[in-house]
Amino acid sequence: MTAAPVPFEIFAHRVVGPLACNCYIIGDAITREAIVVDPGGDADDLAEFVDAQDLKVVQIVATHAHFDHVVAAEELRRFTGAPFRLHPADQVLLDWYMESGRMFLGVELPPPPEIDASVEEGDTLRAGSFELEVLHTPGHSPGSISLVGASAVFSGDSLFASSIGRSDLPGGDDLLLRKMIRGKLFSLGDEMIVLPGHGPQTTIGQERSFNPFVGDRSDTVDPP
User: Which pLDDT score is estimated for 206?
Assistant: First the structure.
């Protein structure tokens, strides 16, 4: 797999919502076209930023359908007119969205976002001349994806700094998650920056060498 050659600009990195999700607004600095990745909350603040920066949001995408990554998606969808995209294997989790809010937060969440288009392995998301290539990286959830640019990968809740995503939630698969990280994400090259769904950024090389769950020092065996 070859990462997209066009550098991108991170217009904004916001830690949003009740579970401190990393939301990224990224795109082409010349055309001002942008993609919103993982709008997990604080919709008014995100919309205000988009408006103040004169950005044209052309795609809204969630790396997976857990509520902490999609709470603000519908409001942003209405505000910007941009389509919301999700891997179809996570439709079942989106259907569980309201119940999960009650279970984990004890609150009633706003209705889940409408899905305008699917996003699957090999798809390309574009904003101006900027492109992101889609990798299907299930394990944290059936429809988890990672988004690969020229110098960074948005790994959602698959790979974190010194950790990996949970696999004990509905649809999770620990061995599959480790296989996806080692087989797909680790193939991107050591210099690739990892921008995860929670916590600080890291690099593929750092995680390959030192991640206690999937790094070189881990003794977990991948499934065949």
Answer: 97
Q: What's the Rg (C-alpha) of the chain?
A: 16
Angle, helices 73-80 vs 43-52, to 10°: value is 30
Give the pLDDT score at 219.
59
* Residue 209, token pair as written in the block: 């060498």
- In 3D space, the residue among 172, 133, 176 whose CA is nearest the CA of residue 1 turns out to be 133
Over residues 162-203, the pLDDT tens digits come to 999 999 999 999 999 999 999 999 999 999 999 999 999 999
Q: What's the rounded Cα separation, in Å, for the pair 129 and 114?
A: 27
Q: What is the mean pLDDT of residues 3-21?
A: 80
Q: What value, to the nearest 5°, has the Cα angle with vertex 9 and ends 5 and 10?
A: 130
Q: Give strand ranges (E) for the chain.
A: 9-16, 21-27, 33-37, 56-61, 84-86, 117-118, 124-127, 130-136, 145-148, 152-156, 159-160, 163-164, 193-196, 202-203
**CA–CA gap between residue 92 and residue 9 (Å, rounded):** 33
Q: What is the pTM of this model?
A: 0.93
